[in-house]
Amino acid sequence: MIVSVILAAGKGTRMHSDLPKVLHPLLGAPLLEHVLDSAEPLSPAQKVVVIGHARQHVQAAFPARGITWAVQDTQLGTAHAAHCGVEAILPVRDEDPHVLILNGDLPLVRPETLKALLDEHVRSEAKVSILTCDLQAPAGYGRVVRSKEGFVVGIVEEKDADASTKLIQEVNVGIYVFRLSVFKEFYKRIGRENAQGELYLTDVVVQAARAGRKVATFKVACEREVAQVNSRAELARASQLLRERILDNYMLEGISIDDPASTYIEKGVRIGLESRIYPFTVIHRGVEIGERCEVGPFAHLRSGTRIADGGSIGNFVEIKNSTVGIGTKVRHLAYVGDGEIGAHVNIGAGTIFANYDGKAKHKTVVKDGAFVGSGTVLVAPVTIGSGAVTGAGSVVLRNHDVADGDVVVGVPAKTIKRN
Ligand code: UD1
Ligand code: CA
C-alpha cells in the first residue's frame, strides 16, 4: 500500500509574494496541482497535503480532489512538515505502508519517474529510497554524499556545504519513499544543528542510513524533470520547460506548431489532428480545438472556448467563453466574448461582440451560415439568424435580433432586406 504526502506549508519566502508558493500558477494551474497530478497515477490509498502558510487559500483551491489536509502551524523544516503529514495517515490493519513524500515545488516530475522510484524501492526491499539526479549546475540543491562503496552517507544542503561538497553534482531531488515505521523511528533522532536551524527531512534519510537501514537511490536521467521552484525566475524557467514538453507532445500526436518558441499553450488544452498553430499564439487552459483548424498568428483563445473542426482563427483575434462552429472563420482583429457561433459563419475583420454593459456579461448568438460584415458591433444580448447579413460598420443593438436571412445595415442597424 502506498500513501502520498506533499509538503506545501512553506511561505515561499524567495518568491516575495503574498500568494503562497504552491498557488503560483504555472501554465494555467497552481504549482501544487502539477505535483498532485504527477502522483495521481500511482493511485495512493490516501493523499495527504501538508499546509500551513495561508492554508485556507490553498485548501480552497482544491475542493474536490479527495485530499487529507494536515496542518503544520509553524514551519520548522521539511522533516517537521513530513511528520505532520505522516501523523494524518489513517491506520490500515497492521500494515506498514510506503509513504511517498514530495516537495510541493517540483512540478515537472513525470508519473513514470515516480513509478520507477517506487518499483526500485519495492524490488530492492529498501527502507528508504530517494530520487537523485546529476546536474550540470547543482547549486541550490542538497548534495548526495556517498561512501567509497557507493552508499549514501550524507545529504548536505547548499547552505551547510563546504567548497568540496559543493562540487558534488548528484543532488537530492526532494522526493522520497519511506517505510512509515522507519520514518517515525528516525524522525525522533534528528536535531536542528544546521545553517537554517530547521528539521531537515534529508537528516531522517541519513540517520536511517547510518543505523544500517537500507537506503536506495533512483537516479532520474532528465535534468528538466527536477526543476524546483523557489523563486519567480525558477517559475519562469519551469514554465518554459513544461511549455516545450506540452508542445512536443502535440507535434508527436500530429498537430503542427510552426514556432514552439513563441507559442504559449497552457496545461489541459485539447487540439485535434492536423490542426495548425501559427506563431505568437496564446491558448488558455480548458480550450478545445477540433481537427484541421488553423489558429494564429497572434491569436488569444481564453478559457471556455471551443472551436469545432475546420475552424479558422486568424491574427489579433481574442475569443473568450465562446463556441465556434464547424468551418467558421474569424480571421482578423476581432473580439468574441460569450458567443455562440454556428457552422460556416464568417465573422468579418474588426467585429466586436460587446458582451459587457458595465454590470453583467451577456450572450451573443450567430447562427449557421451568417455573414457578419467588417467592423460590426453586436451589442449583447442579441441573436443573428442563420444566413443573415450585417453590413460593414453596422451596430446591432441589444435585443434587436436579426431574423434568419435578413440583411441589416447602419447605426443602429436597420433591416434593408427581408428574407
Ligand atoms: C529541499 C531539500 C534539498 C533538495 C531540495 C530540492 C531539505 C532540508 N532540503 O530544499 O535537499 O535538494 O528541496 O527540491 O529538505 N516545507 C514545508 N514546511 C516547512 C519547510 C518546507 O511544508 O517547514 C515545504 C515547502 O512548502 C516546499 C517543500 O517543503 O514545498 C521544500 O521546501 P523548500 O524550502 O523549497 O526546500 P529547499 O530549500 O528547496
Ligand atoms: Ca525547493
The structural domain count equals 2
Major sheet attributes: 13 strands, mixed
Overall average residue pLDDT: 97
> Approximately how much helix is present in the residues?
10-25%
**What is the SS-derived class?**
alpha/beta
The name of the CATH architecture of the largest domain is Alpha-Beta Complex
- Figure out the total of helices: 8
Spatial shape: elongated
Which blocks of ≥5 consecutive residues have pLDDT under 50? Answer: none
Strand content: 25-35%
What is the count of β-strands? 34
The rounded Rg comes to: 27 Å
Q: For this structure, what is the CATH class of the largest domain?
A: Alpha Beta
What labels describe this entry?
8 helices; UDP N-Acetylglucosamine Acyltransferase, domain 1; alpha/beta; elongated; 13-stranded mixed sheet; Spore Coat Polysaccharide Biosynthesis Protein SpsA, Chain A; 31% strand; binds uridine-diphosphate-N-acetylglucosamine; 419 residues
Which secondary structure elements does this structure contain, and how are they paired or packed?
Layout: E1 2-8, E2 25-26, E3 29-30, H1 31-39, E4 46-51, H2 55-60, E5 67-71, H3 78-87, E6 98-103, H4 111-123, E7 128-134, E8 142-146, E9 152-156, H5 163-166, E10 170-179, H6 180-187, H7 201-210, E11 215-219, H8 232-253, E12 256-257, E13 263-265, E14 270-271, E15 276-277, E16 281-283, E17 288-289, E18 294-295, E19 299-301, E20 306-307, E21 312-320, E22 323-324, E23 329-337, E24 339-341, E25 346-347, E26 352-354, E27 364-366, E28 371-372, E29 377-379, E30 382-384, E31 389-390, E32 395-396, E33 407-409, E34 414-417
Parallel strand pairs: 1-4, 1-6, 4-5, 7-11, 12-15, 13-16, 14-17, 15-18, 16-19, 17-20, 18-21, 19-21, 20-22, 21-23, 22-24, 23-25, 24-27, 25-28, 26-29, 27-30, 28-31, 29-32, 31-33
Antiparallel strand pairs: 2-3, 6-10, 7-10, 8-9, 8-10, 33-34
Helix pairs in contact: 3-6, 3-7, 6-7
Bound molecules: uridine-diphosphate-N-acetylglucosamine and calcium ion.
